[in-house]
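Hey, I was hoping to borrow your eyes for a little while. For a while now I've been wondering how a particular protein folds. The fold is given in discrete form, as structure tokens running alongside the sequence. Could you read through the record and tell me how the tokens relate to the sequence? Take your time with it, there's no hurry, and the full record follows here:
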Amino acid sequence: MAGQICLKWNSFLNNIATSFEHLWEEEGLVDVTLASDGQCLTAHKVILSASSPFFKKVFQ
């Protein structure tokens, strides 16, 4: 493991969940808009891709 660095992030799950919640509330870093039946929804490509093989393929 020469040349490797190991980092530890205390309270990772809590911090990442809180960060996602803030991004969602503030619509921060929104990078895609989905439209259907005259309605629009903003979203994050990374979240859609992680949640759906369909969107993962669309965004590749």
